[in-house]
Each structure stands twice: as C-alpha cells, then as structure tokens.
Amino acid sequence: MSRLELRGVHKDFSGVEVLHGVDLSGDTGEVIGVVGANGAGKSTLIKILSGALPMSQGEMWMDGERVDLRSPHDAHDRGIRTVYQELSLVPELSVTENLLMGSFPRRFGLIDWTAAHSRAQQLLDRVGFGAINPKSKAGQLSVARQQMVEIAKALVSEPRVLVLDEPSAVLAGSDLAALFALVRQLRDSGVLVIYVSHRLVEVLELASSIVVIKDGRIIETTVPQQTNEDELIRLMAGRRLEQIYPPRRHAPGQVLLDAEGLQLRAGEIVGLFGLVGSGRSELAHRIFRHPAKAIKDGLAFVTEDRARSGLVLGMPVRDNISLTTWRSNAKGPFIDASAQRRDVARMVEQLGIRPANCAAMPAVHLSGGNQQKVVLAKWLLRNPRVLLLDEPTRGVDMATRVDIYRMVDQLARQGLAVLLISSELTEVIGATDRVLVMHQGRITGELNSADTGEDEVLAYAMGRNV
C-alpha cells in the first residue's frame, strides 16, 4: 500500500489535453524526483497534487483510501503541502505572521506574540535557516530567503507528503546544503517528498527514484544508480545536447556601463556571483534604480522574480511583450494593433515561445521557461545596449537554458553588454567571459572565466584571500 498513488490522471484546458493518463506512486520515506522540460506537464501535475486543480479523469489514493481533492484546503487536511516555485508570502507581513497564519498561539484570547516569534524561530532553526529574523517583513528579504521561509511554512502542520517545486532555484552554498539536509531529514522521518527540479545533479543526489515527464506523459521511471545527466536530458528534450555553453572568448569593445565598481563592455558577458545576502541582486537594482532614465539610456533589466516584477500574469502574452513599447506603437491614444501583432509574432518565433499561438493566452498559463522568454522578449523589443539578467534560467529546463545561453551569446556578438547574475557556479563560469564575485556588499574578485574554477569563485564569495 503506497502513501500516495495517482492512477490514469488526465487534465485538459478548454478541450486541450495536457496530461495523458499519468500514473505515479510513492511511499513513506521516499524522495521522488520529477524532471521534464518546460511545458511537459509538471506544473499541472503539481497543482492537481496540491488540490489547486481538479483532474479531468483519473484517481488519487492515499494509504489505500481514494481521495477527492476539491481545494488546497482538502490537500492540507490530507497532509499534503506544496511549496511552489513562485513565492506566495504576504510581503507586508512579518516572517512570523507568514509562517503561523491561521495557527497563532493565544493567551487570554489574544495572540501571544512572544510565543509566536519563538515558534517561528524554532521552525526556521529546524530547516537550517535560523539566521532569518522572524520579526522581519517578508517583503524585505531577498528572494532566496523568502524561498527558505516558504519551505519552513510548509512544515508548520507536519506534512505526510511534501511537494517541492524548484526549491533550490535561488539557493547556493550553505543554504543549498541546508535544503539537502532538510530533505534527507524529512525522508528519514517518514515523509514522502516529491522533488521537482531542473537541477539534475540534485535530483540524482537526493532522489530514491526519478520520473521523467514529457508531453504530458511519464515516459521513464528509473533510479539514480541506473542513469545520468546526459540520459535524463536526452529523455526530457528528445535529443542530446552536445554543447551547453556557446564558445565565448572574443575581444570586448567599448565600455557601455561604468558604475558601482563594475564595467561592462560591448560584446562581453560578465557573470556576477555571490552567496545569499552578498548584495548581487541589490547591485543590479541600484544600477537600474531610476527605471525611466535607465530605459532611455539603453538598459534593460530582467529581474529574478518574473511573477512579481517581470510579468502581469493575468494579462495576455501579447500585452506583456508589448509593455515596454506600447508608446512607440501608439496611434494617438490607441495602440497600433497591427504593429503589436507583428512585434509579438516576431518575438514568439525568434525566442521559440510555446505554444506558438499563445498571443491571446494569459501569461499565467505558460510554463516557467516560456514566461521567462516573454520577459526577455519584452526587453529585446527595445533594442537595449546593456542587458542585466538576474537569475535568467531560474526554474528553466536544460534544453530551454541552452536556447537562452545561445540567445544571450548572439546578443553579445551583436554588440550588447550583458551582466548575468546567477547562483549557479557552472552557469556563471560557463556562460561568461569574466566573473565578478561579491561578498558582504563588495566586489571581492574579478576572474577570467576561462582560467578559473568553482573553488576559486567560492573562496572569493566567502571572503577568503585567494
């Protein structure tokens, strides 16, 4: 008898089927790794598990009993908690309020704030993130620390099944190690963990079994001992990726940006790396702190949180892509619809946004990778001179990453200067010409990507003399 079992799960949207008879099972003390390209059906599967979406056909069983989840509340009652890739904290509330919402300790009928903050601190300590102040406003934390709070929040009710959707996308260093330790701790305590990630190294390290989903179907179930990254990528993408990072290494041109202790030159991709709290994202925001002037000066900024500051999720794709150019496409007080259609069609084709007929779709219905392409399209329509990319491949599958790396390389070869901020060492070295390393708000190292390694970059990031 399995802790959780899905049998023949189908899901369609307006007659378009996106899941085609998915079967999945897992038992107590297991970690099931789920991998697949963007648009494969992972997000839909997660939403069905969390009660956020009803299945069109199929069955769900828990501990030998058939269950019918009609809402996330039903899932919570059954002991299923989900940590989504997109953050759901209330930014104006404290960490304690976000963690304990609906379950505050009380005294004489009033919230016992001393006990509440203590309970929140215990939760943060348990997940290895005790350095976070529970009294801090959630919105003032970095995206990485908000992710940590999201994970801690899911543990308040002691879940039996924990679904983690790209939990490590913005984590690095000790924070990533803390996440791994937590997953193993939960596994050993009997929790079934469903770990969805594009970071295949992590899946191979943590998972008891690995499920590959493609085009709404599970096409392979395997174990880490019998597969490797190359094979998983082949299954996900339907092809082998012979070269992930384009060859860089060519002479940069004139300086296009000289600010805040860094220079960006035409035709150059500069990586920026730092551990959580180092100030890497804050540096990008400071460079772009006057958006109207920055845009006018030829800067474009793809932020690390596409859902909150990159897209208007409820608006159609066409309007999201046109956000930065609607003035130039205006005819008096009206948008030039024909010009908008041409621009959108060109960007959808150029970036390979899927589905190809997505112009009228709300952006919220796209996969994470295609949402990221929409954000990029929005800025590329302005023909910028300097492109700031903060975690551009967060939550993006390897095949789509390769597309993004090649696109960025092509833009650099056309004369753009690119700053690529990433928490992934392999990416920040492999996709760039130079790497700048930050520690405690300062740039502590500048390294040639071709001549450095991960250990050297990490040493600078930790403030050590190299």
TrEMBL record:
Residue stretches making up the ABC transporter domain: 4-240, 239-465
Entries under SUPFAM superfamilies matching the protein: P-loop containing nucleoside triphosphate hydrolases
The keyword ATP-binding belongs to this UniProt entry's keyword annotation: yes
Keyword Ribonucleoprotein: no
GO MF annotations, alphabetized: ATP binding; ATP hydrolysis activity
Signal peptide from the UniProt entry: none
Top-level taxon of the source organism: Bacteria
One Pfam short name: ABC_tran
InterPro entries with a match to the protein in the record: AAA+_ATPase, ABC_carbohydrate_import_ATPase, ABC_transporter-like_ATP-bd, ABC_transporter-like_CS, P-loop_NTPase
Keywords linked to the UniProt accession: ATP-binding, Nucleotide-binding, Repeat, Transport
PANTHER family in the record: CARBOHYDRATE TRANSPORT ATP-BINDING PROTEIN MG119-RELATED (PTHR43790), GALACTOFURANOSE TRANSPORTER ATP-BINDING PROTEIN YTFR (PTHR43790:SF9)
Protein's name according to its UniProt entry: Ribose import ATP-binding protein RbsA 2
Gene: rbsA2
